[in-house]
Structure formats: C-alpha cells, structure tokens
C-alpha cells in the first residue's frame, strides 16, 4: 500500500507514533524554483506571477487568475470589486475562519452571520432565508466550501435573492473540490483561494482570485497593487516606463514571483496530493465507522461533486467525556488535532458588531461542541492514521469502562 510522497514516520519513544496536526510540504522543485527567482534579480510581482495565474486558472477552470498576498485580502478585494454602497449587508456562514469575516468588515460592509446545518457545517437555503427575512435583502453573499465539501452555491444564492455575480466564494479549503464534474473556481463574481502553510496547495502564504469577467480581473489586478495601472510592475524592468496612473483606491496585496514560482512547481504535485488525501479519508472512514459516538464527516453524493479533504472533521459524542477532554487525551498521546472553527459569532468583536439573527445560531453552536479535526495531509502515513484511530477507540473504550466502574461503586453519577 502506498504511503504517500516522502512518507516519514515520526516515531517518539518506543511505540508511540507522533502525529502532528499539520504539515507544510514545500517540494524540492518548489525550493529550487524559489532559489532560481531569488538569484534572478527580480523577486516581486512579475512574469512568474503572470505564469502562475494562467496555470492556476486553467487548473480550476476559470478564465482569469489574479495572484494576491492571501485569501483574506482576496475576499476583501473581490467584495470591493462589487462596488457596493458602504455598509451593505453581506451574508457569511458563522462556521468559518474569522479572516473571511474581517474581509467583509475591511471592504466596508456589514457581515450578517448565517447558521449552518450541523450535518454539513454549511448554511442551507433555509438558514439563509431566516437571515434575509429578518434583515432584508443582502447586497452580496460569501460561500465557503467548508472542509473541502461542496456547497450548493446556486441554491444559496437563490435563497439570498442574489445573482451569481453577487457571490464571492471562499475556496480556502476548496483547491481540489468539484461541484458536479467541474472544479470550484468559476461561475461566480470571484473565487478566492488560499496558499497558506496548511492548505492543499501550500506556499506558506499567498492567495489567488479567479474570475471569468475580464473587467473584474483587470480591476482586481490594479486594486491588489495600490490601484496603479496594471502594468506598473514593469516600471523597474529594462524598457519599462516610469509613468503610471491611479484611478481607484488599492491595497498592497500582491503575490511575489518567489511564491508564484513555488506555486507552479507545487501545482505539479496537486493531483497526487489530492489522491493521497482521499486515501487517508477512506482509511479514517473505515476504522472510525465502528466507534460509537463518532460521526464521520459529511461528503457529497457522487453526482454532486468531489470533496477536497482539506479537513477531516468528525463529530464526537462520547458518553461522559467532552470534546475538549478528548483533545487533551489525544495530545497526551502526541496526536495533534484542531477545531474548525470557533463560530464567528462567539468571537468577542463579531458578537458585538456583526448582524446575528435574533433566534441565534443553534446549528453552529451544537456542531461546535462536537467538532474535532483529525490530521490529514499528503505526507501522513497509514501508520499515523492507524495510530489516531486506535487512540480514539481506546479513549472511547476507557471512558466506557470508567463509567461502568462509577455506576458499580463510587457512584459519582
Ligand atoms: C485559511 C482560511 C482563510 C484565509 O486564508 P489566508 O490565505 O490565510 O488569508 C479564509 N477562509 C477560510 C475558510 C480559511 O480556512
């Protein structure tokens, strides 16, 4: 059985297999590409960025790619490109990364947090309609393909009463996600990807906005670099002109040639990395299915698309031991886990400033208490997966035994 690329079992002690939660694999080819750019005398936005934008757009089936410094800045720029009145309502799932909602704030808009179905971790047409009924029609909608699962973007947009060109997709988890037989990356106003260290195409930092609209692509290309005319980056190249114009406000949110060259090299690995992620998910499925109190992650039906397995989020309902205690018990066994995410409405700033439905966000609250993300990355070995599953089985078992002891004698229950 294959154990992935450069599989390195990381053993500590005699029989404990350490399993870090995350891994950032910068391939030899990407390292060489970075070095090549560093030696070239041109390290910031330039030809490498243009080449990476074209390759990445092709991979995700979009017309244009615009390299940016992060997915967070990508979402902000994409929202700014919609040219909405300041303070407009923008719907977002509350079960997402805080940065995605900060982006709405920084774009000058007002986030409206939407509840999720605890089964999928994502909003439904019904939860969207609940928010729209209470607060009125939104100006835009952000949609996150949570964990790499497939959100039904057209259905959510329809429930929000919005055309697809008012939808910004947060595809931070969705490099490798397919809706039906098409990769995530086209069809909406803009789709924003992350190349953060733990994501499916890691560069350390970086992001990409894809769009099919040439006018939007051009606007984004300027707005990511001070609003300067789009070829201003050439001004320091031999033959480049020192003249440029600024027609709109812009950010400093460009991607560098170092990152882009690494990105092109990393892209060649993406198909095998995605295959390995799917293998790992299947291995978890097989071993965890029999453990009482564990619900496996939701995944799309075959006709609905393909999961990118950025995360493997299980739901835990162990009798008598809560999620946080399980995290501690796993940590004692050198197994790293995480929780994606603390619902945004539970974070102090957003609890005070975001628009939150008066009936609350019970789906997200319920889900949050049960969520646990297990390690999943291409270099994770089968032995490591097995160690995680064995530890979970053991914790579940031991806890059952403890409870039996309690009932038999010490009687704390
Ligand atoms: C990682 C992440 C982001 C932010 O990506 P950056 O590139 O780090 O800005 C946005 N949304 C979600 C859901 C994420 O997981």
Automatic annotation (TrEMBL):
The modification N6-(pyridoxal phosphate)lysine is found at residue 199. Keywords: Pyridoxal phosphate. GO terms for biological process: polysaccharide biosynthetic process. InterPro entries: DegT/StrS_aminotransferase (IPR000653), PyrdxlP-dep_Trfase (IPR015424), PyrdxlP-dep_Trfase_major (IPR015421), PyrdxlP-dep_Trfase_small (IPR015422). SUPFAM superfamilies: PLP-dependent transferases. The active site is at residue 199. The keyword Ligase does not apply. It holds the Pfam family DegT_DnrJ_EryC1. GO terms for molecular function: pyridoxal phosphate binding; transaminase activity. Its cofactor is pyridoxal 5'-phosphate. Belongs to the DegT/DnrJ/EryC1 family. This is dTDP-4-amino-4,6-dideoxygalactose transaminase. It comes from Kribbella solani.
